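Progress report, Aim 2. The chain analyzed during this reporting quarter is listed below.
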Amino acid sequence: MLAVERIPCLQDNYVWLLRSGAGNGIAVVDPAEAGPVEAALARHGLRLTHIFNTHHHGDHVGANLALKAKYGTAIVGPRADQARIPGIDVALADGETYTFDGEVATVLDVPGHTRGHIAFWFAGSAALFCGDTLFALGCGRMFEGTAPQMWRSLAKIRALPDATQVYCAHEYTQSNAKFAVSVDPDNTELRTRAATIDRQRAAGEATVPSLLGLEKRTNPFLRADDAGLAHRMGLSETQPAAVFGALRAAKDVFR
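Predicted structure tokens for the chain:
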């Protein structure tokens, strides 16, 4: 089983520090900046062996080269976007696997936020590292993809087991919850979750990771084929990509 630790970076990024069950593999997912990662490694007396990148944005690959130069780290990232991943050594695509010191990650192509976005699914640890494709109660903006493409990506993630821990890359949950309640006000479980999130953030607590089963029931972006939600968006559940597109457009301008 993977041991996972949260490393806050920048304003609202999370870098994830992974330790393999064997104890020899040490990885980070989407290192935004080197300083906090180096401090976490030093605190535990660890040496970095791997970097996993989900996509090319600077707040996910910003420390790649500095960490690689210091630790000799292997960088694993998306084949579809390898030209934009600094220092990449191993390029992977949908359905391929990568073994990290005995822990097997399956790669999911999940484009939409960017054209080459991937996620890493460690089935043995029920852990998903999904970058900016899925957030707690939200999803990423479509900078390089289309609504049908992003919906297919989210549907691929939704097919994973409910017990999956979702390790996304940003603390956006409170603002996501406000939007989710605005489009799904009759969802009792969502309203309860939103109140819990408000208490967590008031106490300075993180809201990530989240449980995929809970996301399936409360995250509107995973429920674009729900009849009630589609009706509220003025569309039919038989048009989930259109419903998703309407939700994403509404979130883009929500204040």
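The chain has a mean pLDDT of 97. The longest helix spans residues 188-202. These observations will guide the mutagenesis work planned for the next reporting period.
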